[in-house]
Specification:
CATH superfamily of the largest domain: DD-peptidase/beta-lactamase superfamily
Helix content: 40-55%
CATH architecture of the largest domain: 3-Layer(aba) Sandwich
Distance between the termini: 94 Å
Structural class: alpha+beta
Shape: elongated
Bound molecules: zinc ion
Number of strands: 22
Number of helices: 26
């Protein structure tokens, strides 16, 4: 079938002016000819009077007439040539445009096409809780293998929909042309549409019902590609399993059950033809909705089967006369008093509702459907990320694929924590700390928590009531500047792991020379004061007071590439290695001082990614990529598609993890993060603020889990008031974290040396050293004693 919006008229309008004239000239000729015919008629009436003169005039007329005919034919011929050229050119352009993206449709995309589910686990009972059932749950399908489809059933569908199916290569040119002609002239019957079974299958897999010429042409190429990839039987199998049969029923097996209460191998010829009649217009030609229309088309199907010699004359007539007993008939009910099928079909099956366990009953402003919670959105985005990479899809395609893909996903969410944090995020007061900040325009915030195996426990993507499903989830989608939160997972982390620094290595608080300038300034309340003290400072103090100068010096000392690799390869940070940016006309990279020393990274990081990088500092050095999905399963056969339940990888020395954890505890004990202290838990963490005050964040570890918070405006701009990120973190999760009655502890490490250090050298103090500082923690591989005293 050709679309109503086919651009035939536009093609005409786009003809050049002389070509238009030609068409008009043609019309003029037509008019002249009509006029001549009238003259001719008038002439004959007066014929008897002047016969000779008439002969001459007749000859002249004939000559003139033939000239007109000739020029008309010539004009028409030229128009055909010109139009043909234009169409061919247009087609070539389309071909160029579409050839590249037509090898992307897989039957496997469709094989699991039924409802998808997301489950959470009740941590008390261990039971699965259904959180989300995809919109298309009203699709019911029982896939069958082509070997199990009787030949009669295959024949019925092939001869109903695509009689040259076994001969063509995806496209039936005869029918495509007929459909094309039909679009303009409407002289063909429309019993068979322009689409082959292959094309219809493509349409179903891609969900692309757009009938614009562009889409049609793409579909044609995709069909040809599909025919190259799959044998005919595989394509027919996909078609028979996927097509709609009215209401919720998908696939021929489900249709057989729905309409006849039988399996496909029990269908008679008449019944098979009845089912084959449906796909042309499933909602209108199904025997429940319109028995007459179905019967009429069933007779057409039988005729096609007969004409093609797959049923005999006797079979044909018997089938025509067979009385069909449908499941909705009294007769059927009398014969089958107790339905054996578990499927409960009604004509109106659009009663599906999302089933999420979330307490809020918000409805989506746009769709009117119940709003999905943040964790369901985040889970769907995570699944989409996986499918995008696996099948080379766009995000939307991947989400669609999940929704109709027959997947079952199991989540890692801790519903107690989730509910607690969601509650906190409904109240704007929790984002102001100790009366410091009153905003005219409330900034936004996001939060994520994960256990030390990478299981995301809670995720909230914004302050206030959630009003949209699958909206922007800041926790997993907003890439923002980590600021000083970068330091432990870049410069300090690398240097400690590689024994370049210790707990008490002495630096001088002074800038480095970078691009000919002294850089970076330390934090100051006014951006004028660079706050360089030029005095000695120990590593643990530099970190807890968040001096910028020391990470800059560490970058200079250790090498940018090395630190970049540590952040990205060891701790999984999503940094930019190298990318040419057209707008800025230069190559962007995070292998530079600002990103690695003070967290001014090119694209920003999600709070999920940032918190994830801290995980090894709380579990003895093990990294596991953060995930909401513990397992993604193919519902059809129970096979596990994605499994995140395995162990993480030991990425850094457990001693490094131990010492860094102690360093991060200093931040909370007496540094920039004191507001995050908890009475029952030992918090380790780091504050982060960008120099322009666009982003603030905090990552906090307790013995039980690691979590982080971000605050800022969606369109980055300066926060107008001081925000204590550690305090906001505590407002949001502190009460919950503190209440956990677990015996969890940070991993102990017997090799780490706990000792006083010499205040003048920063090394482990001996009895000869005149002054010693507080207790520090040293890796056994880097615990040097002071030799200066
Ligand atoms: Zn000493």
């Amino acid at each position: 079938m050709y679309p109503n919006n086919f651009k035939g008229k536009e093609l005409f309008l786009s003809l050049k002016s002389d070509e238009k004239n030609m068409i008009m000239a043609d019309n003029t000729n037509q008019e002249n000819r009509n006029n001549l015919n009238e003259t001719d008629f008038a002439f004959e009436e007066s014929a008897p009077k002047k016969k000779k003169k008439k002969k001459n005039r007749l000859a002249r007329f004939c000559k003139k007439f033939l000239t007109f005919i000739g020029s008309t034919i010539l004009s028409l011929f030229l128009i055909v040539i010109i139009t043909g050229t234009i169409v061919a050119t247009a087609l070539t352009v389309y071909v160029m445009e579409f050839m590249e993206n037509t090898d992307d449709v897989r039957i496997t995309d469709m094989e699991m096409s039924y409802a998808s589910y997301i489950y959470g686990v009740d941590k008390d009972t261990g039971e699965n809780i259904l959180l989300y059932e995809v919109q298309s749950t009203d699709i019911q399908c029982i896939p069958v293998k082509i070997e199990d489809v009787p030949q009669t059933v295959r024949n019925a569908f092939v001869y109903a929909e695509d009689e040259r199916f076994y001969a063509h290569e995806g496209i039936d040119y005869k029918r495509t042309f007929a459909a094309f002609a039909n679009y303009f002239l409407d002289f063909y019957g429309t019993a068979q549409g322009g689409s082959t079974i292959t094309q219809q299958l493509i349409k179903n897999i891609t969900g692309d019902n757009d009938t614009s010429p562009e889409r049609k042409i793409r579909e044609i190429f995709r069909a040809m590609e599909m025919e190259k990839r799959y044998p005919k039987d595989k394509i027919l199998e996909g078609y028979l399993n996927y097509i709609g049969f009215g209401g919720s029923a998908r696939g021929v097996q489900m249709a057989a059950i729905k309409y006849f209460g039988k399996s496909i191998d029990e269908l008679s010829i008449a019944e098979a033809a009845c089912l084959a009649a449906i796909p042309q217009n499933p909602e209108k030609i199904n025997p429940f909705a319109n028995p007459e229309a179905n019967k009429k088309r069933q007779e057409y199907v039988l005729k096609k089967m007969y004409e093609n010699g797959v049923i005999s004359t006797d079979e044909y007539h018997a089938a025509l006369n067979e009385k069909l007993i449908f499941t909705n008939s009294e007769e059927y009910k009398a014969l089958n008093p107790e339905p054996t099928t578990i499927y409960n079909f009604t004509q109106d099956e659009n009663t599906d509702e999302n089933t999420d366990s979330s307490t809020d009953e918000n409805t989506d402003e746009e769709t009117g459907e119940k709003v999905t919670p943040y964790y369901v959105d985040a889970a769907i985005y995570e699944i989409a990320d996986y499918l995008m990479a696996e099948y080379d899809l766009t995000q939307q395609e991947a989400i669609d694929k999940f929704k109709k893909g027959g997947y079952t996903a199991y989540l890692t969410i801790d519903f107690d924590m989730q509910e607690y944090v969601e509650e906190k995020y409904l109240n704007y007061n929790n984002f102001q700390y100790a009366g410091y900040n009153k905003f005219d325009e409330q900034p936004q915030s996001s939060f994520i928590a994960m256990d030390y195996s990478g299981n995301v426990l809670a995720v909230v993507g914004g302050i206030g009531e959630k009003t949209t499903s699958l909206g922007f989830n800041r926790a997993v989608q907003a890439k923002r500047q980590p600021g000083s939160c970068m330091k432990p997972v870049a410069s300090y982390g690398y240097a400690l792991e590689n024994n370049k620094i210790t707990w008490s290595t002495i630096f001088v608080d002074k800038p480095i020379t970078y691009n000919g300038e002294q850089w970076p300034s330390n934090y100051s309340s006014d951006s004028v004061n660079k706050n360089w003290s030029y005095s000695s400072i120990y590593v643990f103090n530099a970190l807890k007071l968040s001096k910028n100068t020391i990470p800059a010096q560490i970058c200079e000392m250790c090498g940018l590439r090395e630190i970049f690799d540590y952040s990205t390869q060891t701790l999984g940070l999503d940094l930019v290695e190298e990318r040419y940016d057209e707008n800025q006309g230069k190559i962007l990279t995070d292998i530079d001082y600002s990103p690695l020393a003070v967290g001014g990274v090119t694209d920003g990081l999600t709070i999920e990614n940032l918190v994830n990088a801290y995980m090894p500092y709380g579990n003895g050095g093990v990294y596991k990529k953060a995930h909401l999905i513990s397992q993604l399963v193919n519902s059809a056969d129970g096979s596990i598609i994605l499994d995140n339940t395995g162990d993480g990888e030991q990425v850094i020395d457990p001693e490094t993890a131990y010492v860094m954890n102690k360093l991060l505890q200093q931040v909370i004990l007496s540094g920039t993060g004191t507001a995050a202290q908890l009475s029952n838990k030992t918090v380790a963490g780091k504050t982060g603020t960008t120099s322009n005050w666009n982003d603030i964040c905090f990552v906090g570890l307790t013995e039980d889990f690691v979590s982080g918070i971000w605050m800022g405006y969606d369109t980055p701009s300066t926060l107008p008031a001081y925000v204590n990120s550690a305090g906001v973190w505590k407002n949001v999760i502190g009460g919950y974290a503190n209440s956990l009655d677990t015996d969890a502890s940070y991993p102990d490490n017997e090799n780490v040396v706990e000792a006083y250090f010499c205040t003048s050298t920063g090394k482990l103090a001996t009895s000869r050293c005149p002054h010693s500082g507080s207790v520090g923690y040293y890796k056994s591989s880097n615990a040097e004693y002071c030799t200066s005293h």
